[in-house]
Design goal:
- With 574 residues, the protein is α/β, with parallel strands linked by helices.
- It has 14 helices and 12 strands.
- The strands form 3 sheets. It has a 6-stranded mixed β-sheet, sandwiched between helices. The chain has a 4-stranded antiparallel β-sheet with strand order 2-1-4-5, with helices on one face.
- It is elongated, with a radius of gyration of 35 Å.
Length: 574
């Protein structure tokens, strides 16, 4: 656990360092606002001081001074402008930091690929990428500048206070120094409560997403009421943990209020004694005017002195949110770095040879290796069939070729270049992939096909539609290519959905085609028809086909039979 805490602290320090540059304008505006607040306090103290001196003068009439009133109004307008600029700068700092951090999170998720879903629920990943990153807005927009202002602003305010009343400055300094101890005490509890609150939120979102996906099964099983009750329990747990964070936040604020009240009382007692000594003479004097003005000034500036400390207390909860988010973000796989310019490579897109050289990979040591010294070569433009029962390692090889996982030993090469040395954008352009269940998005059929190449013209689009035999079922749809489908291809049959995926691959026109059980859930007639479309798609491409279908004889090429992660038979020169 200590290692986890050290990692969280390191991540938080790194994010603070990255956020300070963007937060510099917020810090500058905050210091200017504090100075203007001191000026306003002096203006008010001057007006009240002269008025009180006038009351104890011979005629008993309060004296009104005009210039402090005009100065106060001018400082108020200027301070309002600076506060508006500060809020704008803080919002921009938060937006920029969240954009950067969300990009890093998405890069980590893409690095993990489908393999990440083996250990992390898709609802949790959505929570991390959306809610947890969004919750860090306060960390970058409030906590980072507050972590500087809580020291710099009070020290800046102590300078004029120390010049006017050194003893009052000493009292303020001591009371202000006591605040961090209370913040540290309540901050520990806030961090723990925040992590538990995020965990409760993740559980609720994961459960809700699961139940939405399986709503038909829930209704048909008669478990709708039970699942509703459990969702309610998860929501109640989230509410309780959120309220616990708020309780800790209120206690944190109370510690500052106590310190401020103590400072007010002590300063008021000191100023009161001095003023009473001068008032005992019964007449107004310059010394009395200065004493009243300076005493009122110190009393009025005390809230200004504690304002940055209060801002730190409020932002401390944002730091706790950041530590809670770090727990989940650090569990994501490290994003693969882009190759350096010296090591970056591209591959000739006209023909790509694919090879695995003595590759080993293990998902779970307790279950043994998923791949055990696997080697094969697929010359450019030829087809390799990976055959074997479920669990033999076919999908693991696909994930290796897609770059989602790295081999424990051995190497994956395209045209002789190690896969991890190829520029990611180049790798993406080289590969088309069709799996057991195509990923289709809610929208029109046209949008789903154009997803592979949004800038394709109408001629290329229709060529892909015809090559994938999508045009055979278009007349049965109400709006042709403009027909809208639901998430996951809802509204299409399995064969129709696969044809959309094939059309997408046609449009991408990548030199490598990876087919992972593309007909696993289709009836024999539809399977034969889809294989015919895939045969046309495979022409002049390097194809790796993983299947245990009996219809695989429709593809001519090399063959590697796998069992328990090992190559047990070969046909051809693979």
């Amino acid at each position: 656990m200590s290692g986890d805490k050290a990692a969280i602290r390191g991540w938080t320090r790194t994010q603070s360092r990255l956020g300070r540059q963007a937060a510099r304008p917020v810090v500058v505006f905050g210091l200017l606002s504090s100075l203007l607040g001191v000026g306003q306090a002096w203006c008010v103290a001057t007006v009240l001081g002269h008025a009180l001196v006038g009351l104890v003068s011979g005629d008993g009439t309060p004296t009104l001074v005009l210039w402090p009133i005009l100065a106060f109004a001018g400082l108020a307008l200027l301070r309002a402008l600076i506060m508006a600029l500060s809020d704008t700068a803080a919002a921009k700092a938060g937006i920029d930091a969240r954009r950067r951090l969300r990009g890093e999170v998405l890069a980590s998720i893409l690095t993990g690929g489908p393999a990440l879903l083996r250990k992390t629920h898709s609802g949790e990943l959505a929570t991390i990428a959306v809610d947890r990153v969004e919750a860090l807005d306060g960390f970058f927009g409030r906590w980072v500048p507050a972590s500087v202002l809580w020291i710099a602003a009070p020290l800046l305010i102590l300078l004029p206070v120390g010049f006017i009343q050194p003893r009052a400055a000493l009292v303020l300094g001591l009371c202000g120094a006591s605040v961090p101890f209370g913040q540290a005490l309540f901050g520990i509890g806030a961090a723990v409560a925040s992590r538990k609150q995020f965990l409760a939120m993740t559980r609720l979102q994961a459960r809700f997403l699961d139940r939405v996906k399986g709503i038909a099964t829930i209704v048909l099983a008669g478990r709708a009421d039970d699942e509703t009750e459990r969702l309610g329990q998860a929501a109640e747990e989230l509410r309780l943990r959120t309220m616990k964070i708020l309780r800790v936040a209120f206690l944190s604020s109370a510690s500052i209020d106590c310190a401020m009240v103590i400072a007010l009382v002590l300063v008021a007692i000191m100023d009161g004694k001095q003023a009473m000594a001068l008032l005992s003479g019964g007449t107004a004097s310059p010394a009395l005017a200065y004493t009243l003005t300076s005493g009122l000034f110190v009393l009025l500036v005390i809230p200004e002195f504690f304002a940055p400390l209060r801002g730190l207390a409020l932002a401390y909860q944002d730091r706790a949110h950041a530590q809670g988010a770090a727990t989940a973000i650090l569990d994501l796989p490290e994003a693969l770095p882009r190759p350096s310019p010296d090591g970056a490579r591209t591959v000739n897109a006209s023909g790509v040879m694919v090879s695995l050289e003595d590759v080993c990979f293990t998902w779970d040591p307790a279950r043994g290796p998923a791949l055990d010294h696997v080697s094969f070569t697929v010359p450019a433009g030829e087809t390799l069939i990976l055959a074997g029962p479920s669990g033999s390692g076919k999908s693991t090889i696909m994930e290796l070729l897609l770059g989602f996982i790295q081999p424990d030993s051995g190497s994956v090469r395209f045209n002789g270049a190690p896969l991890d040395s190829i520029v990611p954008d180049s790798l993406s352009r080289m590969i088309s992939w069709i799996g057991q269940k195509p990923v289709l998005f809610a929208g029109t059929l046209k949008d789903n096909i154009l997803f592979a190449r949004p800038d394709a013209d109408e001629a290329d689009l229709m060529a892909a539609v015809k090559a994938a035999a999508v045009d055979q079922f278009l007349p049965s749809l109400p709006d042709g290519l403009e027909t809208r489908i639901g998430e996951g291809g809802f509204g299409l049959s399995g064969g129709q959905a696969q044809r959309i995926a094939i059309a997408r691959a046609y449009l991408k026109n990548a030199p490598i085609l990876l087919l992972d059980e593309p007909t696993a859930h289709l009836d024999p007639a539809t399977e034969k028809s889809v294989f015919e479309s895939l045969q046309r798609l495979a022409l002049r491409r390097t194809v790796v086909l993983a299947t245990h279908s009996a219809a695989v004889h429709m593809f001519n090429g090399r063959r590697v039979d796998l069992q328990m992660g090992r190559v047990v038979a070969r046909q051809g020169a693979a």
